[in-house]
Amino acid sequence: MFFLNVRRVSRPGLLLCGCALVFSLNPAFADNTDNAQTQKSPSTEFITVNGVRHTTTTDPDVTSLFKRSLGFSAYSAGGVSALPVLNGMADDRVATFVDGMRMQAACPNHMNPAMSYIDPDMVSSAVAIAGITSVSQGGDSTGGTIEVNRKDPIFSKSSKILVTGHAKGEYRSNGGGSGASGSVTVANNWLSVRYTGSYSHASDYHAGGGQRVLSTNYLSFNHAVTLGVRKENHLLALTVGQQDIPYEGFPNQYMDMTNNRSTFVNGKYTGDFNWGTLEARGFWQRVDHAMNMLSDKGGHTATTGMPMNTDTRTAGYSIKATILLGPRHALGIGSSFDHNGLNDWWPPLLNSMMMGPDTFHNVNNGHRDRLGHYIEWKAQWTPRFSTELGVRNDLVLMNTGPVAPYSWTSMMSMADAAAAKAFNAASRGRTDTNFDVTATGRWQALDSLTIEGGYARKTRSPNLYERYAWGRGAMATTMIGWFGDGNGYVGNLNLTPEIANTVSTTVTLHDPHGHGWEIKVQPYYTYTHHYINVVKIGALSNGLSMLQFANHNAQSYGINSSMFARLWNSQTYGQGEIQANLNWVRGQDFVSHAGLYHQMPTNGLITLRETFQNWSGHVDVTLVKSKESVDRLRQEPRTPGYALLGLGGSYHWRYFTLDGSIDNVLDQKYYLPLGGMSLGDYQSTGYLGPLLGLGRSFNLSLTASF
Question: Where does the motif TonB C-terminal box lie (predicted)?
Fold first, then answer.
């Protein structure tokens, strides 16, 4: 960190009162934190995850930050594109925000979910709230909310010019993964300019025992520039950025990503007033996305593979105001709008009778617009008892233009041609009026006992592909689906929104005289009316199925738990602690009487950590039970249980931090319970089975701060 003397200019300091989330069932009553950082020490590069500080991760995927969060799991996709699951609710059922931007995946296989657009090294804070969430934390979701935020602008405490930043390099032995990232900030006490950039690359990884897992390579670049201005109690930040992913393999999809370019502009204003606080955001994003088959699936030359292109535009705003009604009551009101425009077309393949001679228009000028408003009342009735009550309305408008198959006359396109004619003749515009309600309470019964609980009614409308994927040919249907199961999917114009009713309680026992130990248990139950599942409408030549989205009724229930204990704290041995979490979930479709798809089996993580002066080390044990509850209709594979051992350590010296770790120390061979089918291996070798997990990997990173 460097300071340059300049002519002194009198500027008042900023007092920002940001609302920090209480990362549990009821996030209503939070401590005030300072969002605008000032003169951060170069020795502290942390990510705050669910309120707990962590050092930066060597994993290139942001979803890895949440591995200790209650109810969280993720299912495999590309190397930087895993899809989140909260309490058994996956992907679009989770409201995911990156810097306040709610982004829809611009791909029929969801290869570019929201968290794939930010590198972990750019993250300042992240939170995953499973189940009951405040109406202010977004609608159009049933599983929970994930919020990922970049680092706020940094300002100098005085009129001196502040120059600060960091550079990081990393290496992962499994797959030859490498990465580099960094940032630099130049600021005075009212103006800040920051550049951040990152690069990440890996070849195919190897499973335990040495077997290569095809279609797991990737290359990614991220760049962003943030301009920040502050005056008194007001902060304005504008971020402009671009991401390029020239290629990314997907082991559980028939296709791979051969290009993904995202350009975005994101503005944020926060202000403190006598009456309360105000936050306003506006954003725009363009994504140009291309899919085909990488070399291990048959290449993507002019005469091989299957080119598929997508172009999307996303724009929106959000306004949130918190009005103080007195020392014990606050009223929150807000408005938001998201526009998602989508074009999805598949160019003809040269000299192909099946994929030509015309362009396949999968989604033609489709749009999904969401206008939402909410009001919530937070009350602190006594020092030990508080409540939150919120109501939200979301208006979702969807439509799309006429579509076309590869050919209207070819025998190979007969099924698609007939489906396109029926689709074009149908009325395609849809308007959903959705309502959410959240009611929660928090009672500190004892100094060592806190009980939180409540009820939420959450609603989600179908996405564009669930309603508008129209193809009926075997090849066209297998190009639709973000589930990694190899089945083919067909949309349904008659789908209605999902309505999830959730009740949940969180019981927390903790050390009343200091943070020496804590035990948290969170049971929950969700009944979903009109749950969007599938029915079988045909069979594929490889033994898998052609499925159509349909509304069913379903339930899911489970228990999340975590514990923490400080084992020792002395000058001789430093500080030792143990952390553990355990998650269990079950889901059932009331029509098919099968398990819901992508329900993680019972799983836990135990970590023993020691910190001594500038050194810290940890031992991780990951435990996963065999997967027996499966979705029979999707032919979801059962997987055996496994245990993985991990080791890691970190040493900090002045401006440098060295991190090292070993994943899967014993090189255990195991299958990913949510990994789907290994379609990359199937297309290359003919083997069709569950996806193998990562084998032993030696990881090393070095960070230099200034």
Answer: 689-706
